[in-house]
Amino acid sequence: MILLELFLTFVLIGILNFGGGYAMISFIQNQVVNIHGWLTLREYTDMIAISQATPGPIAVNTATYTGFKIAGVPGALLATLALIVPAYFIILGLMYIFRRWPDNKYLQWGLSGIKPMVLALIIGSAFTLGVENVTNLYELVLFGLAMLLLRKFNTNPIILILAFGCWGIFTANFIF
């Protein structure tokens, strides 16, 4: 029964979400944390950090991790496929529509409306994750430093993840 529930949840996520993995974060969180209670908010935010640090799309990594936590390897495979397959067919349909009518003003207007909504989803997810993960001045300083290095100096995110992870391990005994 849990496999069916897992499958239907990630099919729903795959069908109803637009804008890529970061736009899906809040919707996935609502499903796996708030509605089903499969993960705590802390587990979810940790999973997002791991999903970002590992190769592959963040939403797919999130689905795989959640499925594995709930039902082992079968759950991981099922959740991943349930997320990917609907998006695959939706993309095929959209590709046909945009190739057939590339200059259609209604399609262009629709995209103009969707873009700000997707940005709002991403910012909303960032805010939710920030409130959960930046809980003291030390973490706020690290967040600010990470933003500075990402934006001002175009530092590779993988290098930052590794460096900040090592920094956290190194300073854990001194700060906490």
Automatic annotation (TrEMBL):
<dbReference type="GO" id="GO:0015109">
    <property type="term" value="F:chromate transmembrane transporter activity"/>
</dbReference>
<feature type="transmembrane region" description="Helical">
    <location>
        <begin position="118"/>
        <end position="138"/>
    </location>
</feature>
<comment type="similarity">
    <text>Belongs to the chromate ion transporter (CHR) (TC 2.A.51) family.</text>
</comment>
<feature type="transmembrane region" description="Helical">
    <location>
        <begin position="76"/>
        <end position="98"/>
    </location>
</feature>
<dbReference type="Pfam" id="PF02417">
    <property type="entry name" value="Chromate_transp"/>
</dbReference>
<keyword id="KW-0812">Transmembrane</keyword>
<dbReference type="InterPro" id="IPR052518">
    <property type="entry name" value="CHR_Transporter"/>
</dbReference>
<protein>
    <submittedName>
        <fullName>Chromate transporter</fullName>
    </submittedName>
</protein>
<dbReference type="GO" id="GO:0005886">
    <property type="term" value="C:plasma membrane"/>
</dbReference>
<feature type="transmembrane region" description="Helical">
    <location>
        <begin position="7"/>
        <end position="28"/>
    </location>
</feature>
<keyword id="KW-0472">Membrane</keyword>
<keyword id="KW-1003">Cell membrane</keyword>
<feature type="transmembrane region" description="Helical">
    <location>
        <begin position="158"/>
        <end position="175"/>
    </location>
</feature>
<dbReference type="InterPro" id="IPR003370">
    <property type="entry name" value="Chromate_transpt"/>
</dbReference>
<keyword id="KW-1133">Transmembrane helix</keyword>
